[in-house]
Design goal:
The complex is a heterodimer of chains A (about 290) and B (about 300). Chain A has about 290 residues and is mainly alpha-helical. Chain A folds into two domains: about 35 residues, no CATH class; about 230 residues, Orthogonal Bundle (MetI-like fold). In chain A, about 75% of the residues lie in helices and about 5% in strands. Chain A has 13 helices and two strands. Chain B has a single domain, classed as MetI-like (MetI-like fold, Orthogonal Bundle), CATH 1.10.3720.10. Helices cover about 70% and strands about 0% of the residues of chain B. The N and C termini of chain B lie close together (about 10 Å). The chains are: A mainly alpha (about 290), B mainly alpha (about 300). Chain B: It is a multi-pass membrane protein. Chain B: It comes from Halorubrum glutamatedens. Chain B: Pfam families: BPD_transp_1 (PF00528). Chain B: It is found in: Cell membrane. Chain B: One of its GO terms (cellular component) is plasma membrane.
Chain lengths: ~290, ~300
């Protein structure tokens, strides 16, 4: 390890690190500190800042609208995680099971990794549009009324579907690598024992893939909380009646529709705590697995 | 740690082989199972569902009106050229695409350069508190744009950068992920090579250009694709900080087009043309460079 350190100019090293550190401090750490500070103030466009202590935090603690947004986000994240992992795992398994055309199948399911969220949202807006959608007719033909511009749970479901669709590619990329890692001997033994396909996936592959699956649970949770703004903004604008008002969209509205920078900063701090908790969990798990992995 | 990386790399190596070989006789799964028509059928169905929305977008972008209310309407039209021309020229999508490209290229090149420098210092220099510095960089993973865009908005405006290329590039330049991936990769370069370079009295510049970069081609391409996709797909930050159409990026440009549809001034076929255009650059890069991309993902997970 130490033999790798072949240069020792301290000034040189400092200069090499300077750009990254400078940008980190000015555009990452400083704004975050600013958010913590502003969360203690009543602040907005065109009015003088006023120190209010923890009042903004108390406001959020007592706000039933904010509680609802938290509940919606948690439910949304849980469903995104479960939906994405289930679909991706099954897809990965099918690809793993075929001998012919594996490369083609793989590329045709991992491409949504590159899919821009705004494009995903607009395409769904079009195909599921309550009056114009291509799929609206067929769906209504079986007796289901497509009305997600007015119906909260339906709107939630549409945003959820888009979110899962977009995230499949990323998940399959990691899962296929982990599934290849399962020793062939295990697969063969399972087959000799007459273990069915699906049982083999659930009882043999999934336990071995646990580290990767945990990693993906965290990544998908972070994605559900932070990477889904474009879907909500373009599909539902948080509606109808706040049914899709997830935390990140709620924060955006607080800042840029209501211009309450004080409360918005408080909401930023809450989101920071969410990322922090998730990252700590991930870090712990990674450490744990690297012990018995290596 | 290094062993784990090597190991994961080998796993991806096998995967790459399968992808590169495409269709042909390079079965990865040594399952011994007859694959059964059922599995292929299910795969076709699921792949169809994953691809269907984009196929609809492509088809609609070739039609005159873009009113497609039933499945039989999904026959490609003959207005492709006109629609794309109209979107690019008349509705400013060319401009949006150019702005996105500029933003993404600046972010990729800037991030790559400063991250290589930082990882170089962290791995190959004997300096005190190195681990602390690395942690300081890694900790920024906790500070994604959504956590700080409100104060960042104020800061950028105070700097007088609002509505400019600087606003949508400079804040993205520091990258914990890129520094992390590069550091892991540098640590996996065999010690003997590094020691030989030292014995030969190679200086840092020569070392970077003649040893480090040639030995890191795959990873450098891989992180570049990850960074490009990330930058190109940014939506929230450009939405709040760019307030003129002339400087807007494609993601938000789509939202502007859609606004015109809701207002009834524009047909859906143009929005779908815009969507297809916005998807193409990241998709093309991903398909073209899928091998180094997968290899780099293998490092990221560790």
């Amino acid at each position: 390890m130490s033999t790798r350190e072949i240069f020792d100019g301290r000034l040189e090293a400092a200069l090499l690190l300077a750009p990254t550190l400078l940008v980190s401090v000015v555009f990452l750490y400083y704004p975050t500190a600013l958010a913590f500070r502003t969360s203690l103030f009543d602040a907005g466009f065109g009015r003088a800042e006023e120190f209010v202590g923890l009042e903004n935090y108390l406001t959020l603690l007592e706000s039933s609208a904010y509680h609802r947004s938290v509940a919606i986000s948690v439910l949304f994240a849980a469903l995104v995680v479960v939906g994405t992992i289930t679909v991706s795992l099954y897809l990965t398994f099918l690809i793993h099971e075929v001998d012919d055309g594996q490369g083609w199948y793989l590329i045709s399911v991992i491409w949504p990794y590159a899919l821009p969220p705004a494009v995903a949202a607009l395409v769904f807006l079009f195909i599921l549009h309550p009056t114009l959608g291509v799929l609206t007719g067929p769906i209504e033909a079986v007796g289901f009324d497509v009305d997600w511009f007015n119906d909260g749970p339906q709107a939630f479901l549409v945003v959820l579907l888009v979110a899962i669709w977009k995230q499949i590619g990323y998940n399959v990329i990691f899962m296929i690598a982990a599934m290849k890692d399962v020793p062939d001997a295990l697969t063969e033994t399972a087959e000799l024992d007459g273990v069915g396909r699906l049982r083999r996936l659930v009882s043999v592959y999934v336990p071995i893939m646990t580290p990767t699956l945990f990693f993906l649970v965290i990544i998908n949770t972070i994605y559900a909380f932070f990477g889904t703004f474009a879907f909500v903004d373009l599909l539902t604008s948080g509606g109808p009646a706040n049914a899709t008002n997830v935390l990140i969209f709620d924060l955006y509205r607080e800042g840029f529709s209501f211009f309450n920078f004080g409360v918005a900063s408080t909401k930023s701090v809450v989101l920071f705590l969410v990322v922090a908790v998730l990252m700590v969990i991930q870090f712990r798990l990674t450490e744990e697995y690297s012990y018995y992995g290596a | 740690m290094t062993n784990a990386i090597q190991y994961t790399k080998r796993r991806f190596e096998a995967l790459k082989g399968a992808i590169a070989a495409g269709d042909e006789d390079e079965p990865l799964a040594v399952t011994g199972l007859g694959e059964g028509v059922g599995v292929h059928l299910q795969l076709w169905l699921l792949v169809g569902m994953v691809v269907f929305p984009i196929l609809v977008a492509v088809v609609v972008s070739t039609k005159q009106q873009g009113i497609v209310t039933s499945l039989p309407d999904l026959i490609p039209g003959t207005y492709a050229v006109e629609n794309y021309r109209e979107a690019i020229v008349d509705y400013g999508f060319g401009r949006f695409m150019w702005n996105s490209l500029l933003m993404s290229v600046v972010v990729v090149v800037g991030k790559l350069v400063i991250s290589v420098l930082a990882a170089m210092a962290i791995v190959y220099y004997r300096v005190p508190y190195k681990d602390l510095v690395f942690l300081f960089v890694l900790f920024t993973l906790l500070l994604p744009v959504p956590v700080r865009f409100i104060p960042l908005f104020q800061l950028i405006n105070d700097l007088g950068w609002g509505n400019s290329l600087l606003a949508i590039t400079v804040p993205y330049l520091a990258s914990a992920t890129t520094v992390f991936i590069l550091r892991q990769h540098f640590l996996s370069i065999p010690n003997s090579i590094v020691e030989t370079a030292k014995l030969d009295g190679v200086g840092p510049v020569k070392f970077t250009l003649q040893v480090l970069i040639p030995m890191s081609r795959g990873v450098l391409v891989g992180v570049s694709i990850i960074m490009f996709v990330y930058a190109w797909n940014q939506y929230l930050w450009p939405l709040v900080i760019i307030d003129s159409e002339a400087n807007q990026v494609a993601q938000v440009g789509l939202q502007l087009l859609q606004g015109d549809v809701q207002g009834g001034q524009l047909s859906w076929s143009l929005v779908m043309a815009g969507s297809v255009l916005t998807l193409l650059p990241p998709l093309a890069l991903m398909v073209l460079f899928r091998e180094p991309l997968l290899e780099t993902f293998a490092i990221q997970q560790k």
